[in-house]
Write a structure and sequence with these properties.
The protein is an alpha/beta fold and 233 residues long. It is built from five helices and 13 strands. The two termini are 29 Å apart.
Length: 233
């Protein structure tokens, strides 16, 4: 079985850092920016027509639809390092070690017939409760087992599309794989190429759509700006 590692990137040719942490990756970039990324020294590119990947949701779906590998891993382009989150945090920067960990999770998903995997959206030390859990929110590193994955990132959901995928996978497959011991450490949505165009109004519309779609299984705390997946394990 085959494993593919992809880094969607937009307007970050000069600032992206993720490639320094990986082996055997491909950056997925818009055709209009190909020269910028090559000039920055990133030669491993998958160049796609702009209109096919002109949003984060579009580019993730495009990778899932067109990448040839059986296990697809996508990771944000602004990762500076990763950590092992155990009794204490241990920083990871070695590409061989990090890539082996990503492959390890892909192999587990293949062995267990799990469709979707993701790291935690938060890396606070007290968030570590066990090596793996089987529900929760989705961070900036995701795995898809194409044979089993039954969901899709929906543009109409927008802001909350990653939580929507988690809930749908829990509905149709009853499980996702979430390594709690491995975390990404990157930038924020406000840096160049991020989702800084997201507005509070967009967020509220997406939250309301999620509540209508998922009812009691989804909640959002406005004060702490935290979503909740209310599905018992």
């Amino acid at each position: 079985m085959s494993f593919g590692l992809y880094v969607p990137s937009y307007k970050r040719a000069k600032t992206t850092t993720t490639y320094k942490l990986l082996q055997d990756y491909k950056y997925v970039v818009r055709a209009s920016e190909e020269a910028d990324y090559r000039a920055a020294g990133i030669e491993s590119l998958w160049v796609v027509e702009d209109d096919k990947i002109n949003s984060m949701i579009k580019v993730i779906n495009y990778i899932h639809d067109n990448a040839p590998e059986d296990i697809i891993c996508t990771i944000d382009d602004d990762i500076k390092y990763m950590i092992y989150r155990l009794d204490k945090n241990v920083q990871l920067t070695d590409p061989e070690t990090i890539t082996a960990e990503l492959e390890r999770i892909g192999q587990l998903m293949l062995d267990l017939d799990i469709g979707y995997g993701c790291v935690d959206a938060s890396r606070v030390p007290y968030g570590y409760t066990s090596e793996f859990v089987f529900t929760g929110l989705s961070g900036g590193l995701r795995w898809v087992n194409k044979k089993c994955f039954k969901s899709r990132f929906l543009e109409e959901i927008g802001y909350c599309c990653d939580v929507d995928v988690v809930l749908h996978e829990l509905l149709v497959n009853r499980i996702i794989l979430k390594p709690k011991y491995l975390c990404t450490c990157g930038g924020t949505d406000t840096n160049e190429g991020g989702n800084s165009e997201k507005t509070r109004a967009d967020q509220l519309v997406s939250i309301e759509m999620m509540k209508q779609k998922w009812g009691k299984y989804y909640d959002f705390n406005q004060k702490s700006n935290t979503p909740y997946v209310r599905v018992k394990r």
